[in-house]
Amino acid sequence: MRTVVNALIQRYGHPSEVIVEVARDLKQNLEQRKEDQERQARNQKRNERLRNEASGILQCAPERVRQRSGFYGSTSRSKRRCPKP
To answer: What pTM, to 2 d.p., does this model score?
Structure first.
């Protein structure tokens, strides 16, 4: 798989997004896949909204804000306070 990815990068450049389907996804029925897609769409919308909020606070472009796992959601749940390390 690495060889194929490296060949694609060499030919077309670095991708902006990589989507990998795992065997678990293939075992799901249509309804389960649809539920997963809806959940992922909700999460993407939430992440975009939080990225825009963070960019407003940081006064920078939204694309400059990088997501750290769990950071966005935890600050919104904790009444806008950063979680303690």
So the answer is: 0.51
